[in-house]
């Protein structure tokens, strides 16, 4: 007997299967318990699909120089606070509770070898659905993601001693009881950033500015995956205490260059009217407002990196909004003036 396949029968079969699937889901028979794990074929298929997806998307959307090894201290601090509980760290086992997830977070000391820098970058930026791996909290902060990419790449060969040096071993335990100790892990006991070019000098900064900045990171009005994680658990009183503590520390003295850059001095004092670039001094001059940061004594490399980061942010900023003012302003600065301007601001020229 030959069964003739027609369009009507095909549609009926499809609808029947769809209804059967809905009935099965409605019944609650399917076991979604993490303790049940996946069938081996399901586990294979999900990981196969994930790896193919990561390879494809990373190849088309991530630059070849994805890893930035110059900011290992800030990356280590974020990893210790946010990632080690699931993935473990050199000399530390992951949380048994987190390892009871389905699927459990992989051991990056092994797993990182299986991915390229571009693929690690893509996973860190976008996360992975249905695995518990979150996206980076600030998608536009590709500078932070690049530093974390380099840190993850180094994990397979990183010793416990190296990890503890990067994190600041003396602060790891104290940070659980004292938020200031957590800040010191990256910013240093003197507030000068442990010599890292991606960590700002906050010693001697305006207390009002530091307090406002912490609140902005905690509420998402200012973008940083690292600082959002650090600021979110803090209440307002603790933020004020931290701001007052670092503001009271001795500030770094500006080191004046032998020959000031005339074009940079002009931008600081007068701006560039033809480019609608306001003068830096209109906001950042000493005594102008405690809600704007002091730039004299800041690292020139940090200032330059932030200006370039604002220039590269996606989307159209609205200069009328405080959180969008700097991206709008930075995009009007000529590229060849960023480094001279940063050096001049750091030196206290005005």
UniProtKB/TrEMBL annotation:
<protein>
    <submittedName>
        <fullName>Cytochrome C</fullName>
    </submittedName>
</protein>
<dbReference type="GO" id="GO:0009055">
    <property type="term" value="F:electron transfer activity"/>
</dbReference>
<keyword id="KW-0349">Heme</keyword>
<dbReference type="InterPro" id="IPR009056">
    <property type="entry name" value="Cyt_c-like_dom"/>
</dbReference>
<keyword id="KW-0249">Electron transport</keyword>
<dbReference type="InterPro" id="IPR036909">
    <property type="entry name" value="Cyt_c-like_dom_sf"/>
</dbReference>
<dbReference type="GO" id="GO:0020037">
    <property type="term" value="F:heme binding"/>
</dbReference>
<keyword id="KW-0813">Transport</keyword>
<dbReference type="InterPro" id="IPR050597">
    <property type="entry name" value="Cytochrome_c_Oxidase_Subunit"/>
</dbReference>
<keyword id="KW-0408">Iron</keyword>
<dbReference type="Pfam" id="PF13442">
    <property type="entry name" value="Cytochrome_CBB3"/>
</dbReference>
<keyword id="KW-0479">Metal-binding</keyword>
<feature type="domain" description="Cytochrome c">
    <location>
        <begin position="163"/>
        <end position="250"/>
    </location>
</feature>
<feature type="domain" description="Cytochrome c">
    <location>
        <begin position="266"/>
        <end position="349"/>
    </location>
</feature>
<dbReference type="Pfam" id="PF00034">
    <property type="entry name" value="Cytochrom_C"/>
</dbReference>
<dbReference type="GO" id="GO:0046872">
    <property type="term" value="F:metal ion binding"/>
</dbReference>
<feature type="domain" description="Cytochrome c">
    <location>
        <begin position="64"/>
        <end position="156"/>
    </location>
</feature>
């Amino acid at each position: 007997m030959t069964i003739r396949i027609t369009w009507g029968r095909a549609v009926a079969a499809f609808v029947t299967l769809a209804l059967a699937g809905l009935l099965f889901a409605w019944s609650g028979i399917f076991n979604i318990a993490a303790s049940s794990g996946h069938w081996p074929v399901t586990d294979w298929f999900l990981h196969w699909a994930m790896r193919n997806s990561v390879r494809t998307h990373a190849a088309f959307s991530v630059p070849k120089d994805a890893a930035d090894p110059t900011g290992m201290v800030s990356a280590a601090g974020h990893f210790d606070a946010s990632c080690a509980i699931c993935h473990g760290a050199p000399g530390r086992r992951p949380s048994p509770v987190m390892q009871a997830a389905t699927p459990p977070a992989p051991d990056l000391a092994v797993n990182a070898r299986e991915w390229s820098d571009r693929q690690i970058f893509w996973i860190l930026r976008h996360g992975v659905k249905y695995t518990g791996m979150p996206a980076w909290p600030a998608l536009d902060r590709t500078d932070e993601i690049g530093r974390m990419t380099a840190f993850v790449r180094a994990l397979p060969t990183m010793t416990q001693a190296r990890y503890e040096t990067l994190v600041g071993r003396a602060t790891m335990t104290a940070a659980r009881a004292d938020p200031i100790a957590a800040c010191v892990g990256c910013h240093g006991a003197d507030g000068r950033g442990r010599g890292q070019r991606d960590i700002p000098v906050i010693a001697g900064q305006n207390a009002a500015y530091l307090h406002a900045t912490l609140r902005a990171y905690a509420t998402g009005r200012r973008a940083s995956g690292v600082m959002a994680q650090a600021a979110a658990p803090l209440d307002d009183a603790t933020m004020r205490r931290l701001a007052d503590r670092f503001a009271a520390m001795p500030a770094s003295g500006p080191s004046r260059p032998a020959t000031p850059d005339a074009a940079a001095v002009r931008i600081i004092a007068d701006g560039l009217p033809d480019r609608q670039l306001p003068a830096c001094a209109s906001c950042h001059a000493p005594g102008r407002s405690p809600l704007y940061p002091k730039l004299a004594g800041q690292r020139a490399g940090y200032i330059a990196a932030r200006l370039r980061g604002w220039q590269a942010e996606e989307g159209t900023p609205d200069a009328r909004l405080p959180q969008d003012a700097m991206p709008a302003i930075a995009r009007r600065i000529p590229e060849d003036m960023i480094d001279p301007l940063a050096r001049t601001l750091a030196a206290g020229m005005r």
